[in-house]
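Standup notes
- DV: blocked on the single-chain target, sequence here:
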Amino acid sequence: MENTRMKETERIMHRRQFMKVILLAAGMAYLPLKDRVFIASALARVELPALADLPDPLLVRVIDITHPISQSEIDALIMPHLEKIPMTLDGIRAANENIRVHSLLKTALETLFEQANADRTGLFLHSGFRSYEQQAIAYSQAKDKKVVMLPGTSQHHSGLALDFTSADIGKLIDIGLHFETTKAGKWMTEHAWQYGFLRSYTGNHDGIRDEVWHYLFVGNEIADAYMRLKAGGWYGDVFLLQRAVSLGMRQIVLEIP
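- DV (later): unblocked, structure below
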């Protein structure tokens, strides 16, 4: 009987602790007064940008299996704003002549490549926007289905998701071949967020393997908030942060160990 009471007490404590973590991560202060006083000095609040202050709500448009984008949305919101990237050894260095990106990220991408080129990283842009048809082809041709999404569920439909490659790999048509170990890959890991780009496929989101070559443009405000959250030990990913901002959340509260 005593063991049963002890197990039940442990289960209650675990449930309470779980709810505390969830509510803190959501930026809510629904805690007993004694707990608020006890942990007040161990909380950090990370401010989030207001949706109305962003240059375009597309920056926080979640696109995944749970939140697919329709062909009509792509036609209305994305297609009119696509710009083709010319092949050149200066500025944005494209690995092929068929890359299109959303105009929202063009200036930031130019600035990123200006510094990457100055640092002699060997960075190249591999791909940007993909239509439904292009995504279907990519999916059907992929030997590993854990590195490509089904049509309608890929961030590439937004024109804000980019795949990068490196001259160190040898064949610029290849990606994922230890990109993170190349000079370009290391440079992106350290500096991409400063230009508003974040690695979004982390933590097995939608069953997709951690794609070290895949970056999503979210703008400087969201990228800065994301880096501060991660520095504080936040468990979330880019998709969750996009969702939080799109729902109007203005801060996330972290419990500092």
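- Follow-up: Residues 2-41 have pLDDT under 50 and may be disordered.
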